[in-house]
Amino acid sequence: MQNVTIVDHPLVQHKLTLMRDKGTSTASFRRLLREIALLLSYEVMHDLKLTLTRIETPLAPVDAPILEGKKPVFASILRAGNGLLEGMLDLVPSARVAHIGIYRDPESLEAVEYYFKAPEDLADRLVIVVDPMLATANSASAAIEKLKERGAHNIRFVCLLAAPEGIERFHTAQPDIPIYTAAIDEYLNDHGYIVPGLGDAGDRLYGTK
Asked: What is the pLDDT of residues 172-202, one digit of tens each?
């Protein structure tokens, strides 16, 4: 699909299979999501710009590459997005963090916002929005609209699983935003869950169901 990158690294696919298994414990699910997040980060940030800085190694001075400009912002769609956030912060601990509280109404499946906190200088940073599941795309699209209202324009979206219907709706609402995912599953069921999927990522992450 256009503007969608599937990260098909063998380690990503192996860990995703373990996460799909309904017998996987909460602790293992949490650890696997954190590990996959780190691996997804390599792909979504593969084109960050570098500049040279003068340093001294124990043997000699050298001009060595270092990230150019301001650090990226990881924008977590609460609550399940925090599972991906932790792994990405392992890789880029100096990144800034935004939290976007949005939940999907169980009846209408529409996004309901209840919290937003982000750095003020979003216009000057790469913003990576994270949420494990791109199902109806309502929450993801609403979160990105909020970030755009605050000045963000260099935005990427990272998820663990995506449904074809979610990708289509997302691209209709946010045609300029690239998607990075570990897999595109078959379809959404009547309750807005991805099939075969892995269940409710938030519940499995925090053991709340």
From this structure: 999 999 999 999 999 999 888 999 999 999 9
C-alpha span between 107 and 128 (Å, rounded): 29
Say what the pTM is: 0.92
pLDDT digits (tens, 9 = 90+) for 121-176: 999 999 999 999 999 999 999 999 999 999 999 999 999 999 999 999 999 999 99
The CATH-assigned architecture of domain 4-46+72-206 is 3-Layer(aba) Sandwich (3.40)
The domain ranges of the chain are 4-46+72-206
